[in-house]
């Protein structure tokens, strides 16, 4: 299995301070220890109707100018860029979106190993793609468009996929999303999908059962993985040979949680994922995130990092570093 992380120190609109590239470089080198290591980054399509303050709230003003680190960093030392192209316009704009994908590929294609087309289009909450008008077309037309654009530039090794959120039963489920995909002929969509990512936060935003009981972190993790592989992906004609990537996985440490509890939850999630990697064909794991977005925040999204927003390592940093060193594969 390959491992990786998002390094930027932002979670949605939460970000206490700009990233420190020097600190990031040292920490990533420590985690990777010379092994192949995936770096997750995000760029956003807003369309023309999105106010500038919304763009700024996501720190996205310079998406097409630079990512968190200098360009060359992403292709050095065994690093591989997993670049997410997020679709969140206020009005549907598929022609603009496809042109945006072309621009992203022109700008970053030569640095990219994985191109994720849309971010959790099954998850209809604000500032996530599932809430955007036209998102189903953005996904189903965007995947084959990106593949063709990459191939036209000779970038045949770039893998193209998409991610979904874990089953959103508390939002009424995502049956409509998978029903839409089930109606699309295999050659028009599924045949172009190289991987499917899963955003996995079983205990981040709602209470869970105590450790070792039904409904705990480990059992919720296993449920999400089995549900995706055995129920959802077959509906979209995506076969078992298409790998699952854990595109995002995290657990907070802020009040009322603790840094020790963060370690326990991360241990349970990682152990479950590693146990299921072969039967469910899970080939990649990316943690969200390296740094807290805001260590003082009461919002769970603020404390998902392995280090604080001042780059002090939490116990979870050493835990993840050990997992990378013992379970990585080339």
From TrEMBL:
Record organism: Actinocorallia aurantiaca
Record-linked InterPro entries: GH (IPR017853)
Entry-linked SUPFAM superfamilies: (Trans)glycosidases
Domain of life of the source: Bacteria
Record lineage: Bacteria, Bacillati, Actinomycetota, Actinomycetes, Streptosporangiales
Entry protein name: Uncharacterized protein
């Amino acid at each position: 299995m390959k491992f990786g992380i998002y390094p930027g120190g932002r979670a949605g609109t939460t970000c206490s301070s700009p990233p420190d590239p020097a600190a990031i470089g040292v920490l990533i080198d420590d985690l990777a220890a010379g092994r192949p290591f995936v770096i997750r980054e995000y760029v956003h399509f807003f369309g023309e109707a999105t106010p500038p303050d919304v763009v700024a709230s996501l720190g996205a003003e310079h998406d097409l100018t630079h990512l968190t680190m200098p360009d060359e960093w992403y292709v050095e030392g065994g690093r591989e860029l997993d670049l997410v192209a997020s679709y969140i316009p206020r009005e549907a704009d598929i022609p603009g979106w496809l042109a945006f994908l072309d621009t992203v590929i022109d700008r970053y294609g030569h640095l990219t190993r994985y191109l994720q087309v849309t971010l959790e289009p099954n998850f209809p909450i604000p500032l996530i793609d599932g809430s955007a008008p036209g998102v189903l077309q953005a996904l189903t037309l965007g995947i084959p468009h990106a593949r063709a654009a990459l191939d036209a530039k000779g970038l045949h090794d770039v893998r193209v996929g998409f991610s979904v959120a874990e089953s959103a039963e508390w939002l009424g489920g995502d049956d409509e999303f998978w029903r839409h995909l089930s109606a699309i002929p295999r050659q028009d969509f599924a045949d172009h999908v190289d991987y499917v990512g899963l955003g996995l936060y079983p205990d981040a935003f709602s209470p869970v059962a105590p450790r070792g009981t039904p409904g705990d972190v480990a059992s919720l993790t296993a449920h999400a993985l089995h549900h995706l592989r055995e129920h959802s992906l077959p509906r979209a004609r995506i076969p078992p040979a298409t790998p699952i990537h854990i595109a995002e996985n995290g657990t907070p440490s802020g009040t009322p949680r603790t840094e020790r509890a963060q370690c326990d939850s991360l241990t349970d999630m990682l152990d479950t994922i590693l146990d299921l990697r072969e039967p469910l064909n899970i080939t990649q794991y990316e943690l969200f995130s390296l740094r807290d977005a805001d260590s003082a925040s009461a919002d769970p999204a603020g404390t998902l990092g392995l280090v604080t927003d001042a780059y002090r390592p939490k116990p979870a940093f050493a835990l993840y570093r050990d997992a990378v060193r013992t379970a990585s594969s080339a």
